[in-house]
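Handout, page 2. Input:
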Amino acid sequence: MTLYKIKYGLGGGFGGARDSEILDCENLEEAEAAAYDMAVEYASMYEGSYGLPDYDKIMEREGCSEEEANDIYHEELENWIDYSAEEYHEENK
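Output:
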């Protein structure tokens, strides 16, 4: 296992990936997946506000199923979230 610095947040006027955590992950791909999940969780606090996607509004707007709304939600969310992962070393705090 390797330590990774995970950064996440919302882009644009929200300031980008400003929150961070240090996680022990198997590899960079796992760390990046964790960063993505944290960014999505962070974005959920603003769901439906400031133009961020909202499941119910997507289903109403598109006239689609919950499964299709989920796909559209994550596609639209990609334009909002900001996240990264890099190997963490004590000297690079």
